[in-house]
Amino acid sequence: MEWFTCPYLNSDVVLSDEREQHIAVRHPDLLPVYRHTIAATLFDPDQVRQSKRISNALLFSRWFDEVRNGKFVVVIIITDGRNWIITAYMTKVLAEGDVLWTRN
Fold it and tell me: 70: alpha, beta or left, given left = phi > 0 and alpha = psi -120 to 50?
């Protein structure tokens, strides 16, 4: 289990061993090589969106030029009294969702 600082939530966010394993299996392009991008995305996101599919899920995204010739890293947090990472992945295009916050 690992904890990440998330100023947007004014809280730490947990990545359980089970969720880390899920990300490593489902998104092997992200873990373990780009593990540091999860922390960076939560600490200093480019954008935070409200999930369209899960009412208590937030999508934190950040663009990284150095990740596979330029990709967003998206970290999805469930906020249900505690804040925990459900998954994370890389993408060229962000998913739908209401924008709650954008970096100026």
Answer: left
Instruction: Give residue-wise pLDDT tens across range 18-40.
Output: 999 999 999 999 999 999 999 99
CATH class of the 2-93 domain in this structure: alpha beta
Question: Please, are residues 26 and 18 in contact by the beta-carbon 8 Å criterion?
Answer: no
Other C-beta atoms closer than 10 Å to the C-beta of 37 total 21
Nearest to 31 by CA among 45, 42, 44, 17: 17
pTM: 0.96
- Distance CA(28)–CA(45), nearest Å, equals 22
In terms of residues, how long is the chain?
Answer: 104
The per-residue pLDDT for range 52-85, each reduced to its tens digit, is 999 999 999 999 999 999 999 999 999 998 999 9
